[in-house]
Specification:
CATH architecture of the largest domain: 2-Layer Sandwich
Number of domains: 2
Shape: elongated
Strand order of the largest sheet: 6-10-11-18-17-16-13-12
Distance between the termini: 37 Å
CATH topology of the largest domain: BirA Bifunctional Protein, domain 2
Radius of gyration: 26 Å
Largest sheet: 8 strands, mixed
Number of strands: 18
CATH superfamily of the largest domain: Bira Bifunctional Protein, Domain 2
Structural class: alpha+beta
CATH class of the largest domain: Alpha Beta
Strand content: 25-35%
Number of helices: 13
Length: about 425
């Protein structure tokens, strides 16, 4: 019976065949221990000389790293294994012998590993990160479907910036200028006016020449937009969503978190509600902590966000930023027009901002005024203004950066390991 490593628990004391690659091996006299992987997981195959043909035993001792093969054996419980099972091998069939596999069990430098990213993904740590990433995506769809959202796909090629910045990748769209999307948000607002609650999940591109451990050139965003929802209701949705995702990873990725040596006690605290401080309170807090390099009206840098996060054991919302440093579409606070009804969600443990969101301007006259202030009067933005002209309603939305969220939940240091093939300032290969 052919199966996968992930499904061996269904076949205890049965003989199965699994297509695998040899991850590692060791032998001791009359027994060989094969560390096997098939993409769904890792399992140890035990080859006893007395249980297989002489040819099969010799073959098992001479297998090379990443050789592909079919392994047949009996599934037995093993409490010492992270999986809880091992395979007592009775036969094996080599599919293709790998020769001189470049990534050996010894230590390799980061640049070498990045040059061999297509192979590095096979390692236990990288496999675990990708499985956690997948669980975050799966639980995202589950959460928003449960909450009555409709998945909508905004375009990747756009005629203008979503936030009025110049950090865009330019291309020609036949005889017009076009840009790779830095956010699907404007289009998602249009979708919310048609479908009520919507979310998108797709790639975004920022031509920001940054080399920090928190930045990628190409990354994936989850962007919900919600009609008839104000700022406070949006914050509640955000914290419920983040808590749901974290708890799903804790429940469904136990083996992966153990492989990554993640301190799950930190993640178990992630339950709504989350603490909140205003931007003004955050500035005062930082000054009290000895940060003399920041004043009201400045944006936060990584050290500032880390200091704020370290004062809390959950993600923390920083709300009511100055209008002048936020995007043109954010609604001013009716009680203080100098600040916007917006919030950044800062992850614990120094992982920085993972969500940015706001209530959007829904008044036609105010949005038209913002267009003039930001010189957005061109035809590329005309359709967006019309959303405030035909049945405008209060509405809010936010964007969660998938890779920063993966980095935080897995506890890894650098964001480049959170995406299968990272695009960095000086890296377009492989």
């Amino acid at each position: 019976m052919k199966t996968t490593i992930a499904n061996v628990h269904k076949h205890v004391n049965e003989t199965v065949t699994i297509g695998v690659w040899l991850h590692n091996k060791r032998s001791s006299g009359k027994i060989a221990f094969l560390q096997l992987r098939d993409g769904s997981g890792f399992i140890q195959g035990v080859v006893a000389k007395a249980a297989v043909s002489e040819e099969a035993f010799e073959q098992s001792k001479n297998l090379t790293q990443e050789t592909s093969l079919y392994v047949t054996g009996k599934v037995v419980e093993d409490t010492r294994s992270p999986l809880g099972y091992e395979l007592q091998v009775s036969d094996l069939e080599v599919i293709q012998e790998a020769v001189d596999y470049p990534i050996t069990p010894k230590e390799h430098g980061t640049e070498f590993l990045m040059d061999h990213r297509h192979l590095w993904l096979r390692s236990t740590k990288q496999h675990a990160i990708m499985k956690v990433r997948n669980e975050i995506i799966r639980s995202t769809y589950e959460f928003f479907n449960k909450e009555g959202f409709v998945k909508v796909d905004p375009p990747i090629l756009t005629g203008a910036s979503a936030e009025g910045t110049t950090e865009l990748f330019h291309t020609k769209y036949f005889d017009e200028d076009a840009y790779l999307s830095q956010s699907g948000q404007l289009y998602m607002e249009a979708a919310a006016m048609a479908l009520g609650r919507v979310f998108s999940f797709g790639p975004t591109f920022r031509a920001e020449k940054s080399k920090t451990r928190r930045h990628l050139i190409e990354f994936w965003m989850i962007e919900p937009e919600m009609a008839f929802m104000d700022h406070e209701e949006s914050l509640q949705m955000q914290e419920e969503y983040v808590a749901y995702v974290v708890q799903s990873v804790l429940e469904n990725c136990k083996v992966e978190l153990e492989t990554l040596e993640r301190d799950t006690a930190q993640l178990e605290k992630i339950k709504a509600p989350f603490p909140r401080i205003t931007y003004t309170e955050a500035i005062q807090f930082l000054k009290d902590q000895g940060f003399d390099d920041i004043d009201w009206g400045d944006d936060f840098g990584a050290p500032h966000e880390t200091a704020i996060a370290e004062a809390h054991d959950k993600p923390v919302f920083i709300t009511h930023f100055p209008v002048e440093i936020k995007a043109f579409y954010m609604k001013p606070d009716p009680d203080n027009s100098d600040v916007a009804l917006c919030a950044d969600l800062i992850a614990p443990e120094g992982y920085g901002e993972i969500i940015g969101g706001s209530e959007r301007i829904d008044d036609y006259e105010l949005m038209a005024e913002r267009y003039k202030e930001h010189e957005l009067d061109g035809p590329a933005y005309e359709w967006y203004l019309q959303l405030r002209q035909y049945g405008s309603v209060p509405h809010s939305g936010f964007g969660l950066g998938l890779e920063r969220t993966v980095a935080w939940i897995t506890g890894i240091e650098h964001i480049r390991e959170t995406i299968p093939f990272p695009r960095l300032l000086n890296r377009l290969y492989p």
